[in-house]
Design a protein that fits this description.
The chain is of the alpha/beta class. It has three domains: 40 residues, no CATH class; 30 residues, no CATH class; 201 residues, Rossmann fold. α6 links the parallel β2 and β3. The N and C termini lie far apart (63 Å).
Length: 291
């Protein structure tokens, strides 16, 4: 017991001396104030957060002051207040359920039985979360439409209000880094799909409008490649990194855009609410192997 007490006292005294020395050293004082989220190490330019990524920072929407006159200052401050965002936006992205890739057109790409069950589990999960949806948007591809329809049977939302968006269709957003050998779409596909998927991102990802007085919830039912690209773009990661992310069928990805424009991710490909046998992420190519 005496040895333990001596050890504890010695350790405490050592730590106290260490921090006292840091506080006495002017160079170390900054370490105390800049701990946790700040550092004296310069931040690489690629890692800096662009607070006006959606071009909706109030200062970028207001005509600058012409002079320092009180009347002009009042006008400027008033315009800033009118464009001040008050509430957050929550964007919940759902990947479609498992489907069978047979036939030459999208019309034949229907959900498997397991894919339908996956969608139902996701719908039940969203119902249990108790979210009041402001918007529901779905890709126009068959597998996304079928997934959305099953989810809508479980949540409180009028099917007639669902928006169908062709911009959300699956595609090749941008050549991935590192390259992969098992998937080689034509360069023209990246050029064509990339512009469309980027347009979808700009359409749905932005901070709230100034007149939004409460937090809003948007549900988007889409596709793996598109969702992964959206995540990289929203978090300001290199968009070429999209293929490094894997998300399961019918999984939930939840992003929040704060009034300041900061973006955080709450769920990434969450599917832990499903039984293990329903966890899939690849497309079955053979109907014999489909559950």
């Amino acid at each position: 017991m005496r040895k333990f007490t001596a050890f504890a006292c010695g350790t405490g005294a050592g730590l106290a001396a260490f921090y006292l020395q840091r506080l006495r050293d002017p160079k170390q004082t900054a370490w105390v104030h800049n701990s946790w989220t700040n550092s004296e190490r310069p931040v690489d330019s690629w890692a800096l957060w662009d607070s006006n990524w959606d071009c909706r920072d109030p200062k970028s929407l207001v005509r600058p002051q012409k002079n320092e006159q009180p009347q002009e200052q009042n006008r400027y401050n008033s315009d800033l207040e009118k464009n001040h965002v008050k509430s957050a936006r929550h964007i919940i992205l759902i990947r479609h359920g498992e489907y069978l890739d047979v036939g030459d057109t999208d019309d034949t790409h229907h959900l498997t039985e397991r894919g339908r069950e996956q969608a139902k589990f996701t719908g039940q999960r969203l119902h249990d979360l108790g979210i009041k949806w402001d918007k529901v948007i779905a890709s126009t591809m068959v597998r996304a439409q079928e997934t959305a329809d099953i989810i809508l049977n479980e949540i409180d939302y009028d099917k007639a209000k669902v928006k169908n968006c062709p911009y959300l269709r699956e595609g090749a957003p941008i050549p991935p880094q590192p390259p992969v050998g098992h998937w080689k779409p034509e360069a023209s596909q990246f050029f064509r799909d990339g512009a469309r998927i980027e347009a979808a991102f700009r359409r749905y990802f932005h901070r709230a409008y100034p007149d939004q007085t409460k937090e809003s919830y948007t549900l988007i039912v889409g596709h793996g490649n598109v969702i992964r690209y959206f995540v990289c773009r929203a978090l300001q990661f290199p968009p070429e990194a999209w293929l490094r992310i894997s998300i399961n069928h019918a999984s939930i990805t939840w992003l929040t855009i704060s009034p300041s424009g900061n973006v955080s991710i709450k769920y990434l490909g969450d599917s832990g609410f499903m039984p293990v046998k329903h966890l899939t992420n690849r497309i079955p190519r053979d109907a014999k192997n489909v559950v």
